[in-house]
């Protein structure tokens, strides 16, 4: 089955700096790669996603890149704000079977 | 509107109790999911329903019994649980399990404690 690895497990940045989280996946059949933000006591919130036929996608301060050959995808957050502090999960999906990375706890210091 | 609702928010049950978790969505989504999330861990897939039919069962113990009465509702029936089953149970839905839209939208979860 699919195995998703995510790094780093914790990330601390100063407000205004950029944050990068990286994931790798094992199953070349995976074709959909979402990123979720989970705040304490809440369910995961979809923040951005990318499909296997696209190399990069951007939505305001958030961008995701995908390298299918290397089976890598990354989340980039620019101009970080304290409200970006949360746990971020990457995931890889084949149709309705989605597997998550272990998560990254991002702390943005004011 | 991408809202998935779950009830109850919190549940405490003994090992001999029978209880049910409920999930509802009104987005016309045709796939619904149950995930289990332990503290400081990612969500783990338990069950997937596509068009009201069970399509994935991740070898979940029989003390967890899913039910999809219609396309908007998903239940998880609990019986004879163990303390290690204490976790956040998340429901999610997605638009078209057989097509190209795979975005899954999660509910807030039910925090389950088994005593």
How do you describe this structure in short?
The complex is a heterodimer of chains A (110) and B (115). Chain A is mostly beta strands and 110 residues long. Chain A has strands spanning 4-7, 10-14, 19-25, 32-38, 45-51, 56-59, 62-67, 72-77, 86-94, 97-100, 104-109.
Give an account of the 3D structure.
- The complex is a heterodimer of chains A (110) and B (115).
- With 110 residues, chain A is mainly beta.
- In chain A, strands 2, 4, 5, 9, 10 and 11 form a 6-stranded mixed sheet that branches. A 5-stranded antiparallel sheet of chain A has the order 1-3-8-7-6, with no helix packed on it.
- Chain A is 0% helix and 59% strand.
- Chain A starts with a strand and ends with a strand.
- Chain B is mainly β and 115 residues long.
- Chain B has no helices and 11 strands.
- In chain B, strands 2, 4, 5, 6, 9, 10 and 11 form a 7-stranded mixed sheet that branches.
- In chain B, β7 and β8 (73-79) form a beta hairpin.
- Chain B is globular and about 40 Å long.
- The relative contact order of chain B is 0.33.
- The chains are: A mainly beta (110), B mainly beta (115).
- The interface between A and B is medium-sized, with 21 and 25 residues.
